[in-house]
Structure formats: structure tokens, C-alpha cells
Write a structure and sequence with these properties.
With about 190 residues, the chain is an alpha+beta fold. The protein has 5 helices and 8 strands; from the N terminus they run ββααβββαβαββα. It has one domain: Gcn5-related N-acetyltransferase (GNAT) (Aminopeptidase, 3-Layer(aba) Sandwich). It starts with a strand and ends in a 17-residue tail after the last helix.
């Protein structure tokens, strides 16, 4: 089942998508977290990872391809990881340069957040970025994320030490920005009251 937004469709990754993933991971502009310089991820590496995935009904992560609705072009991918059911998950987003500034990234992020809060009932969603990535910080803030932790000088990029940022969006924060969101889940603090 695909998830649909105004500009994009998010669908499960497929074997043939691995070429795109390798290209995005090897581009220093689109891959902000390169740990091996220069990056040398091959399509074969990505295919091997894809082929090793095992089916499970209890998914803790997913990588979704961003398909531009108007053209059908693959615009990048968005993922969630570290899913703790009904509690939290982390998201990540990589968009190909031709789609920068087109609102594709914002639409993809909003579609995934709708799924995580509406369908999976999460309490909080996190993302990681760094202080040298103003596009990522600005995009997160447009969806209501706020910096919840700053790890000083923990990222080294382009010859500079940067702060690693953890940004979070709570269920309440999501609800404040989306009038259509009707939170029917019980208040978790009610369980703590005598």
C-alpha cells in the first residue's frame, strides 16, 4: 500500500531502487552523514542489504521511495527506524538535488508523519541532523520539530566540527499543527495517577 500526499507517493522500496540509493549515498551533498570519505557505496552493496531483509509483521523500520506524482520520477527516500510501538521512532530523509526547493521533501515528511501519528499511534518522532545543514533544520521546523538535544562538536564535515542535533515532534505538537487530527488515544500520564 502506498501513502499519498499532494506532490508525492511513498511506496516500499524494491530491488530495482537500490541504484538510486547508492547514488544518493555517494553524493556528499545529499548524504549528510557520510562516515567513510570518500563514500564508495555500490549498487551491489545496497542489493545485498535489500536481499538480506526478512519479512516480519512486526516492522521496526521501513524505507520508502519518494515518487514525484506529476512526473513519476524517483525523488529520493524517507525512512523510519527504531520503532517502539505506540511510543517513538526516528525518521530520515534524502532527496535528490533536482527536487530541492520544490516542496517534495516537506510533502514526503508530512505524509510519513501522518502515517506514524495517525496509523501507528506514536507519541514522539525524532530526527538527527547537524548544525551545518540549515535545509534539514528548516524543513524539520516547518513540520513542528524542535531541537531537543545538541551534542557539541560531534560531527566533522567539510573540515569543520559541527553540533549534532536531535530534533523531536510530539503527538501533541503534531495535533496543534493539524486540525484534522483527532487524538483518541488515552493520555499516557493517566496511567501514572493514583
Amino acid at each position: 500500500m502506498a501513502l499519498e500526499g499532494a506532490l508525492v507517493v511513498l511506496r516500499e522500496e524494491q530491488r530495482e531502487d537500490q541504484k538510486l540509493f547508492a547514488e544518493l549515498r555517494n553524493d556528499l551533498d545529499t548524504q549528510a552523514w557520510n562516515l567513510a570519505l570518500p563514500p564508495s557505496y555500490t549498487e551491489e552493496m545496497h542489493v545485498k542489504r535489500f536481499d538480506a531483509m526478512e519479512f516480519s509483521y512486526e516492522r521496526r523500520s521501513a524505507r520508502l521511495v519518494i515518487v514525484h506524482k506529476e512526473t513519476g520520477a524517483l525523488a529520493g527516500y524517507i525512512s523510519y527506524t527504531d520503532l517502539q510501538p505506540r511510543l517513538s521512532a526516528s525518521i530520515g530523509l534524502v532527496v535528490a538535488k533536482p527536487f530541492w526547493g520544490t516542496r517534495v521533501a516537506l510533502d514526503a515528511q508530512e505524509v510519513l508523519l501522518r502515517f506514524l501519528f495517525h496509523e501507528l499511534g506514536l507519541r514522539v518522532v525524532h530526527l538527527w541532523t547537524h548544525s551545518g545543514n540549515p535545509r534539514a533544520v528548516g524543513l524539520a521546523e516547518k513540520s513542528g520539530f524542535r531541537i531537543s538535544a545538541r551534542i557539541r562538536e560531534a560531527t566533522y564535515r567539510n573540515g569543520r566540527l559541527l553540533d549534532t542535533l536531535v530534533m523531536s515532534l510530539t503527538r501533541d505538537g503534531y495535533g496543534e499543527r493539524h486540525a484534522e487530527f483527532q487524538d483518541t488515544l488515552p493520555d499516557p500520564t493517566a496511567l501514572l495517577r493514583p
